[in-house]
Specification:
Helix content: over 70%
Radius of gyration: 17 Å
Low-confidence stretches: none
Number of domains: 1
Length: about 180
């Protein structure tokens, strides 16, 4: 039941942005809208994954592992939307990797996310033992790289970025006080 609730709630924003990109006449560039919106959703999902242990009433209804898997898949969707927006032109994409810092930060975050996704099963957790917890702490580095990716894109309005930073710092401070990490 928890997985059903988690998947249902997590996939709603994706369905919403695709619906908007098709039916909202005010969106001039649907691909750009989808890339930007999926990035916001991915960032928000990472923050939610980190905050679930602190949400005492909600954590009984949300499956954190499923939420992490969905977060990776949304991040992957963000990446594939970027690829298709560039017509899978690998020359152009390679040029972006070399010359654009925000693309580099995003790629590194995505690459670091892959081992977390690959080891998200109970079998992998048992096999890795305590190393599993160390590996899954990469989520903090992924979060920092994702913030850097977003920060380097911003041209003028830092309000949402600052909001993300405030929320993340609040979560980390609360975790530090509760779990003494």
């Amino acid at each position: 039941m928890n997985r059903f609730i988690t998947y249902s709630l997590s996939l709603f924003p994706i369905f919403f942005i695709f619906y908007q990109s098709i039916y909202n006449d005010e969106i001039i560039n649907p691909y750009s809208y989808l890339i930007i919106s999926s990035g916001y959703i991915a960032m928000s999902m990472i923050i939610i994954v980190l905050s679930v242990p602190l949400l005492f009433y909600i954590k009984n209804y949300i499956d954190r592992r499923s939420l992490g898997i969905i977060t990776f898949l949304i991040t992957l969707l963000h990446f594939f939307l970027y690829l298709t927006d560039n017509d899978l032109n690998f020359s152009s994409i390679s040029s972006d990797i070399v010359s654009r810092n925000f693309i580099q930060a995003g790629y590194v975050a995505l690459i670091l996310f892959i081992p977390l996704f690959m080891t998200s099963s109970n079998k992998a957790q048992k096999k890795l033992g305590t190393k599993w917890f160390a590996l899954h702490r990469l989520i903090y580095l992924i979060l920092v790289l994702s913030l850097l990716h977003y920060y380097l894109i911003i041209k003028a309005d830092y309000f949402l970025f600052n909001t993300y930073v405030f929320i993340i710092l609040s979560i980390l401070l609360i975790k530090k006080r509760i779990y003494k990490i």
